[in-house]
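In this supplementary section we document a worked example of the pipeline. Step one takes a protein sequence of length 288 as its only input; no multiple sequence alignment statistics are reported here. Step two produces a three-dimensional model, which step three serialises into structure tokens for compact storage. The input and output of this example are shown verbatim.
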Amino acid sequence: MLHQAIYELHEEGHSISSLCKIADISRQAHYQYLKRDHSQKEEEFEKITSQIAEIYEEVDGIYGYRQMTLAINRKCKTKYNYKRIYRLMKIMGIKSVTRIKKKVYTKVKAEHIAENILNREFSSNRPNEKWLTDVTEFHTLEGKVYLSAILDLHSNRIVDWNFGISNNNKLVFENFKNALKKNLNAKPLIHSDRGFQYTSFGFRKILESREIKQSMSRVGKCIDNGPMESIWGKIKSERYHLKKNQKPYQTREELVDDIEEYIYFYNEERPQKVLKGMTPLECYLMAA
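The serialised model returned by step three reads:
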């Protein structure tokens, strides 16, 4: 309490030296206490956020901060209050998927930038070794539709995909979690651009909870995620633009059904020269 009082009085403008002299302690002792206290807080921060990420995945994102507080305290035998868990979930960029609120769009500062570990090594020797991911958008007369997808570099198979009307964390997080559910033992290197979802603290904690490494493209280098860009090109040139040029998509549902039909076609029926004439699904099943 003494060190905290000195810290607070210093924040109000009082001299550290004078305050330490009054308290009969050395400046060195005070700074050592602050350093130790800061380290302890960092350690506790990492512990709590890891637990939040783990529980969030287990319940498919349905918990808000109140229910999350109950779950954390029950699991860890702690007594954290609602305000603290709310603040941490806000920092992580996660919230209950069941809450519907007015959308407010703000520019998000990148919280975590990963190195370009993939380094354009687009070949892969086995399924689920390297995954690429990205988000693209489509237009209908009803409004925009966003598609998040994950590509396995071994077979060029689209592992999982998720549609939404907003380009947000939920779109990407659900896509990634569903891909892992379909591939329970997978621990791929996951590569993306530097979109706000992938640089968010929440996404990094989900990866850490699964012991999955993250890689990111360099600024302005779309080719670093080339195969993913190629997939978007195929979907748009072979289906989206062909249909849209004939007749604009009237509703979001119409577009989603059509693009999803193409994805099944791409995975299961469209042979590829690079796969020696096999489809992505055939290549995957052969290796599996």
